[in-house]
Amino acid sequence: MNDPKKSLEMIGKALQSQYEALSTRTKYKQSLDPNVEDAKRFCMSLRRSARDERILFHYNGHGVPRPTPSGEIWVFNRGYTQYIPVSVYDLQTWLGAPCIYAYDCHAAGHIVNNFNAFVEKRKENEKKNGPDPNGPPAEAYENCIQLAACRADEVLPMHPELPADLFTCCITSPIDIAVRWFVMQSPLLRGQFDNLSIPGKITDRRTPLGELNWIFTAITDTIAWSTLEGPLFKRLFRQDLVVAAMFRNFLLAVRIMRVHNCHPVSSPELPDTHNHPMWDAWDLAVDHCLVQLPMLQAASEPGGVPYTYKHSDFFEQQLTAFEVWLKYKSSDLDKPPEQLPVLLQVLLSQIHRLRALVLLSKYLDLGPKAVHLALSIGIFPYVLKLLQSPAPELKPVLVFIWARIMAVDHKAIKQELVKENGYAYFINILIPQDGPVVNAINVPEHLAMCAFVTALFCEGYKQGQRLCMGPDLFQACLTHTEELESPLLRQWATLCISQLWDGYPEAKWQALVKDKTALDRLSRLLNDPVPEVRTACIVALTTFLGDGETVNPNSPNINATAVTSGLTHGDIRQKELSFAISVLALTNDASSIVRREVVVFYSKFVKQYRSRFLVAAYSSLEEDVAILRSQTNIDDIRANSPAHGSIYTVVWRALLVLTEDPFPEVADYAQDVVDYVFQLLRKTPLSAEVEKLEQYLVQYSMSSLSVNLPELQNNSPNKATRVSSMGPSAVAGSGVGHGSHNGPTSESKFSQTLLKRSVSFANTLKQYAWGSGEEEQLQSQNQHPQHGRAGNGSASGSNTLWGGFGGSFVNSTGAGAGNLGNTRSAFPTVTTVAYGVGRRPRPVRYQTKDYTKKIVLPLASGFFEWSCEYFQEPQMCNTESDEPGSERYLERVWRKSRNEHIIAETQVQKEMAVYGGWSTHVGLLNNLTQPTKLEFAQFEPHLVGVDDRDGVTVWDWTESTKLNRFCNSNPVGTRITEAKFLNEDDVPLLLTGSSEGVVRIYRHYESVKNIELACSWRVLTDLLPAHRNSGLIAEWQQSRGALLVGGDVRVIRVWDAPRELCTSDIPARSGSPVTALTSDQVAGNIVVAGFGDGGIRVYDRRLGPRESLVKTWKRHKSWVVNVRMQRGGARELVSGSTDGQVYLWDIRLDEPVLSFQAHSNGMRAIDVHEHAPVIATGSQTVGIWSTNGNRVATVRPPSSGYSLGSKASQVSALSFHPHRMIMAVNNVQDAHIGVFNCTDDPSRKYGR
Asked: Which parts of the chain are WD repeats (predicted)?
């Protein structure tokens, strides 16, 4: 073309059309060979029209001088007679920010270098002179993006077969130049294509050109994502479509131009990508297309043979590669798969979409890190768009994907769900339809995920609640709460209702108006067998409680239906009171999660009816003081109390009891509620009277302390003065002296509490919360001086006045072996350790209570957030313990092999137990404190000894080494009466039971560092005072997961461990306490109990509780020490009483099978080996007996001076190892535990 002007116009139009192919929405303007003034006006007009949007500035510098080293480009003067330099600084000023620059000229690197230098100069000037009022801040220029064709010392390639503006071609038309360059580089293809043109449209993925562009996008995204840092990738490839397209094409320019000795430059700088392995996949895709090009061209000619284009299998191969990664490399999320960006592009294809979604769901199932990685590559717009798809086969996998995304990042995407109406997708699935909504497989699980997504959409989002408030969703969720087969669906349908109601009274009213039975149906879940469902129900009822919000009767959401229904605020109040009564039954639930949520419910209930609770608290305080003063007019006081007998008083008493909950977190929550009420009470006109009543309780507590625990008085003569001077609030809330060694001293704790809390009376009132009179308390104290719970440190809710002093003023130095006790008994081998000394195991998520923090009601639940974590955990793959090759799996295999080896090794020793010698002493363990119960683990080399207070010591009996000692946290005056091992086939747990009716289960009990309190709850309530107490007696049935407990009560209570519920109360049918429990460990139906009056009763759990007593034996004339049914062997049933009489029973017979007198001077302990036919009895010596009644051996004291067998000593505890022929024995008034082994004695075997 001879006309330069027309050539220039054609070049400009071609460049504009190429950019328009990148983005049709962007407006483009040309400035062809402008002079200085035109360039300035052009740039400034662009900024005015763009405002704060990004400007694309493409500089084609062909035919003009190169940029200068000082950063100047060249334009014409006004007369077009010469070139005039324009500084990049001026260009920055004219265009402002943000901008993206493309420089296609020689030495383009000079422009980039000086551009960045001028930005730094602007920042310095801004620091000195302040920001420029006529321009953007200097930092805005830093965000400008620059693409340059070459470095400062390079010239552009001048290959005759390449276009002069090669860089521009790469940036604007990548597919065309990439194919041409591939042909040039291939010796086989070079010269075969005279007119190289790929048929099709670039926007149609079904055509060859569109498919190549699709593959190119996937490959360049993959290269960028695998080489760039996450924030940079998001900025360049996901925030702006034009910027993303230009940078994809820039990667191609880097690859092509480096072959011709040019190194394109960018700002921000990119790492080297020209030799990325994915370029080979691109070359293969191009070659696949070019091979078919001659046939396509021939078919397009007249008379040509039709030819169907064979699409590339690139995406299928990438999906296969991704599937292989998921199978073999998914454990290494630090090196994510390169195919993840390709997966996004595959979602655009209907052919591969389902497979891609399934693979994506498997990837997201790996955890939050995988979800974040998927979101970082831009998956969200794709899955959001797919919510508009009506395809039923996509619903299950889409629901799963959205559940994973919402579980990780729901707050940022709620508005997007509103814009695209995506929330309706999940609501429509939740609402029952005539036909199946999702696939027939795992329908409840998918419905639960829909409820989860909807609940998160409503959480704290008013607009989301309004959009979901329709009655159809509420009724659907209510229906799903009755799904018996899916606890997960019941849980999340209930939580979805709770989020609909939370802080949105219109939704509550509408629910009541549409279905008056809705709340009754919902409250049935309080008795659900699954603890998470029970907790979810409490959460929903908590959100239903009013919190001061008012409902506009003219609201469009509360229409005339509410008026015609006759529903009033009084009806709502009655519902709330009925809920408060219903929730009371869960205060003794075995699940700590349920009990904590009960306290959260009552915290909101207390806040709403706080005036009534002030009356209840004062009346209860006045009544308790009157009981302590032994006033005879207690009935008059109760009759004159406006709160006596009201639901508020009952709830208040329950909260006082919960302040002494054995689980620290529950106790902390309850203490906050009680302290909140007392703070308000101190602000009323009754504050002076309250002060007097509190002072009386403190003085009474101190006097009881000095009378019943004189050893504490001896160790701290001035403690009473110190406490009384500070007042009851500091005493009750101080939490001092709990063996906790992190945190402030006891004095600082007192001062902190005194300054920050007006009163902390929750613990001081614990014993009065039960409503027991002084007479009953004194009777109990005479047996065991039970004044309160030992302190738990500033982190615990179980610190009482007495326990606090017991731990702090007696000994607060720790649990070291040489510094455990403060009071020596008359027997030098026994150390008396004060209550509360030693490490107190805490729950794994327990956070230390901050006494300086202001109490705000209602308390935060946290259950909803905790439940959401379920959807962050892997669901598709096996757990680690079930995954072959994993560490946990190999550990489990090893444990199983070890257990089988121990069983096989010990089976042959059963006969030896009858004729062998039992006097071989293999260990002498110094427990320091007096052991009262010993328990061997089945397979671990562990022996647990519990002392006569709250100490638990774990030994490795094979090495005679102490592994751990910790405090059980039972109250002062109580004792540990039971110890059991649970789940011994795998990782064992330790259960302890104490005489106040509480069991605690510990995980990693043998580790000083890792021990945890797994759970704890009160298994027995209403303990009866007696002349002689048995404490808590327990029997664990591993096969059924059942815990049977008895003791100083009139029932045998059965707890279901998986469901964390009391399943039945079996009437004991005896006025004496239960002293021993045993059961059939195989089927678990037969339960045998021994009693304090010598009776033995057999119960059959297959019958109803009232008909379960099937046999009663009354041959024993004194306290039954133990009754034991063997787990293996002949499964003998043996009982023994304190008078030394031993019986062997057959439950089918009324008379014993065998009886013998083991000792004539009384018997304190008896045990039966689980598998061998031997019985051990303990008096002054230990007698080993066969189940035939023959005395096998008598264990004599060892030569080391161990006192067993002396006339003054009596056996305190003894225990057989469940499998090995090992026995542990301990004496009264002796802290040592002797471990004895049975050895082979052939002479006795053949001499029988």
From this structure: 1113-1155
Of 832, 837, 831, give the one whose Cα is nearest residue 803. 837
Closest C-alpha to 235, from 99, 149, 143, 148: 143
Give the residue from 700, 871, 879 showing the smallest Cα distance to 802: 700
Terminal-residue alpha carbon distance, the chain? 125
From CA 189, how far away is CA 181, in angstroms rounded? 11
Angle (nearest 5°) at CA 679 between 674 and 681: 95
Q: Omega of the bond prior to 336 within 30 degrees of 0, cis?
A: no
Joined together, the tokens standing for residue 182 give 């591939």
What is the C-alpha separation between 438 and 1241, in angstroms, rounded? 72
Q: 38: which 2 tokens?
A: 């035109």
Which residue from 1133, 1209, 1121, 1221 is spatially nearest to 1165, judged by alpha carbons?
1121
User: Phi, psi (5° rounding) for residue 85?
Assistant: -75, 140
Q: Are strands 1174-1178 and 1165-1168 parallel, antiparallel or unpaired?
A: antiparallel
Amino acid at 773: G
Contact between 310 and 316 (Cβ < 8 Å) = no
Q: Which of 621-635, 682-696, 1078-1092, 1184-1198 has the lowest mean pLDDT?
A: 621-635
Residue 989's beta-bridge partner residues? 982
Query: Given the structure tokens 């054609």, which residue do they identify?
Result: 10
Residue 865: name the closest of 484, 479, 407, 1198 by CA. 407
Please report which confidence band the pLDDT of residue 18 belongs to, taking 50, 70 and 90 as the band edges.
confident
User: Quick one: which of 805, 784, 684, 841 has its CA closest to 1023?
Assistant: 784
Name residue 87's amino acid. Answer: S
What are the start-end ranges of the E strands in 896-996?
917-926, 931-936, 942-947, 951-956, 961-967, 976-982, 989-994
Beta strand pairing call for 145-148 and 265-267: antiparallel
The partner residues of 58 in beta bridges, in order of sequence, read 102
Q: How much is the average pLDDT of 864-869?
A: 93
Q: Quick one: which of 281, 250, 276 has its CA closest to 263?
A: 250
pLDDT, tens digit, 9 for 90 and up, residues 139-186: 889 889 999 999 999 999 988 888 888 999 999 999 999 999 998 888
Question: What residue ranges in 790-833 does DSSP mark as E strands?
Answer: 823-824, 831-832
Q: What angle do CA 1102, 1108, 1111 make, to 5 degrees?
A: 115
Q: Which of 151-165, 576-590, 803-817 has the lowest mean pLDDT?
A: 803-817
Per the CB < 8 A criterion, the answer to whether 366 and 330 are in contact is yes
CA nearest to 949, candidates 996, 904, 984, 982: 996
Which residue, chain included where needed, has tokens 């069983």? 903
Name the pLDDT band for 547 (thresholds 50, 70, 90): low
Count CA atoms closer than 13 A to 1141's CA, side-chain side. 15
Joined tokens for residue 831: 């150390």
Contacts with 775 (C-beta within 8 Å, 6 or more apart), sequence order: none
Question: How many whole angstroms separate alpha carbon 203 and alpha carbon 1081?
Answer: 72
Region label for 1084, one of left (φ > 0), alpha (ψ between -120 and 50) or beta (otherwise) = left
**Helices 664-682, 687-708: inter-axial angle, 10-degree rounding:** 140
Are the C-beta atoms of residues 298 and 256 closer than 8 Å to each other? Answer: no
pLDDT in tens, 82-93: 888 999 999 999
Alpha carbon 143 to its chain's center: 40
- Mean pLDDT lowest for which of 243-257, 319-333, 551-565, 855-869? 551-565
C-alpha torsion sign, points 910, 915, 919, 921: negative
- Residues 496 and 867: their CA atoms lie apart, in Å, by 12
Question: Maximum Cα–Cα distance for the chain, whole Å?
Answer: 132
**Ramachandran angles phi, psi of 1187, nearest 5°:** -70, 0
Residue among 396, 404, 393, 476 at smallest CA distance from 433: 476
β-strands 1042-1047, 1096-1100: how paired?
Answer: unpaired
Tell me if residue 1109 falls in helix, strand or coil: strand
User: What token pair was written down for 752?
Assistant: 């902190």
